[in-house]
Amino acid sequence: MSDTGKTIVNSWNEWDPLRHVIVGRADDCHIPAEEPALDAKVPEDSDMRGQWGRRPQETIDRANELLNNFASQLEKRGIRVDRPTSIDHSVPVETPDFSTESQFGCMPPRDVLLTVGSEMLEATMSYRCRWFEYLNYRPLMQKYFEEDPKFRHESAPKPRLTDADYHPDYLSEKIGVEKRLKWTAEKFFVTTEEEPLFDAADVLRFGRDLVVQHGFTTNLKGIEWLRRHFPDHRVHAVNFPGDPYPIHIDATFTPLRPGLILNNPQRRLPDEQREMFQKNDWQIVDSAQPAHNAPPPLCYSSTWLSMNVLVLDPKTVCVEKSEVYQAEQMDKLGMEVVEVDLRDAYAFGGGLHCCTADVYREGVCEDYFP
Ligand code: ABU
Predict the structure, then answer these.
(1) ipTM
(2) Cα–Cα distance for residue pair 12/115, rounded to 1 Å
(3) 251 lines ligand 1 (CB under 6 A)
(4) CATH number, domain containing residue 82
């Protein structure tokens, strides 16, 4: 154990100056075989339907090239970057309750790791293929544990992910967007309330307040588990009825600095959930439109990865290079834009926020909503 007493892990929000971050790797990423929660997210007209197996090597190499370049860009700005250690993702996930043919990958870290202050919490996850994904990050967790005497390494209870965790209505081939929108407006999602489930990327950190999306990957029991796990925080459940495939909050609701949030104009936060922001004079503005009409090939995510930006400090933000409308909006909002080429890595699980996980941001836990 280090006797230097150095603080390695500290991050309370999405915008304080970033000093240390994890950037994912595309190594050995797989398109997993069909399974309930994953199928519900794959858009009905997607080129991914019915396909699975290891991703083509040339796409893995290209994604790694872009992720490595992004890591170097951050390092050149003085930010320490760590990378996961890829496990063999071709190994099936087998538990007494289920089995899948392969895993997913070590992208994107934001889905798995939630940093709150000096704690890094491994999420339960809700896809069977992602059950062992935390193992890619264990060497880093061990290192932080050795180096930082205050680091809290936590793991949420592993879920059983039996069929009881998923609503069978979502498993039919063609549901149609209209019905999906009706269901999501009614908060009828693919995951049931069988046991606590959450992905870390459904959580946004605003100091004392955690804002958590209730959707496909996080259920109400998962939100309640977070509430009990973080007793000094206020945990708020939000949902975005305009999203027919609601997973992960970070292409929907993007805080840029204290007092300013971008909201996806197709996935507006309902009026009754805006109260805490309005009462404290926070502005929620519609984000710019994406620059693309469709996601890249074999991509789970929507075109709204345009707003999946990484804030480096309250005046500086990384925006994907081709997302010209988003960059223009950031400029008008007074942010310095750092362009990052990442679109060819989107298929591996997301954009600039997704493909990172905070380790250290300057600052302390503040109350922005007194
Ligand atoms: N992981 C963020 C993806 C959200 C979206 O597809 O819009």
Answers:
(1) 0.97
(2) 8
(3) yes
(4) 3.75.10.10
If one counts every other C-beta atom within 10 angstroms of the C-beta of residue 362, the result is 12
Domain residues for 178?
Answer: 18-244+350-361
CB 212 within 8 A of CB 196: no
Task: Specify the ligand 1 atom closest to the Cα of 41.
Answer: 6
Mutate to test the pocket of ligand 1, among 112, 254, 305 (most ligand atoms within 8 A of CB): 305
Which residues, at least 6 apart from 40, have a Cβ–Cβ distance to it below 8 Å?
166, 170, 171, 190, 216, 245
The one-character DSSP state at 335 is P
In whole angstroms, what separates CA 315 from the centre of its chain?
22
pLDDT at site 43: 77
261 falls within a domain: no
* Sign of the dihedral through C-alpha 240, 242, 246, 249: negative
pLDDT band at 230 (very low <50, low <70, confident <90, very high): very high
291 lies in a domain? no
Give me the amino acid identity at 141. Answer: M
Q: Quick check: is 12 in a domain?
A: no
> 137 near 83, Cβ under 8 Å?
no
High-pLDDT (> 90) share of the chain, %: 91
Supply 48's token pair: 């991914």
Q: How many domains does the chain have?
A: 1
Give the pLDDT confidence of 275-320 residue by residue, as tens digits.
999 999 999 999 999 999 999 999 989 999 999 999 999 999 999 9
Q: Is the CB of 21 under 6 A from ligand 1?
A: no
pLDDT digits (tens, 9 = 90+) for 355-370: 999 999 999 999 999 9
Q: Tens digit of pLDDT for each residue in 318-342?
A: 999 999 999 999 999 999 999 999 9
Asked, for residue 110, whether it belongs to a domain, the answer is yes
Strand stretches in 161-282, DSSP E: 203-206, 209-213, 234-238, 253-257, 260-263
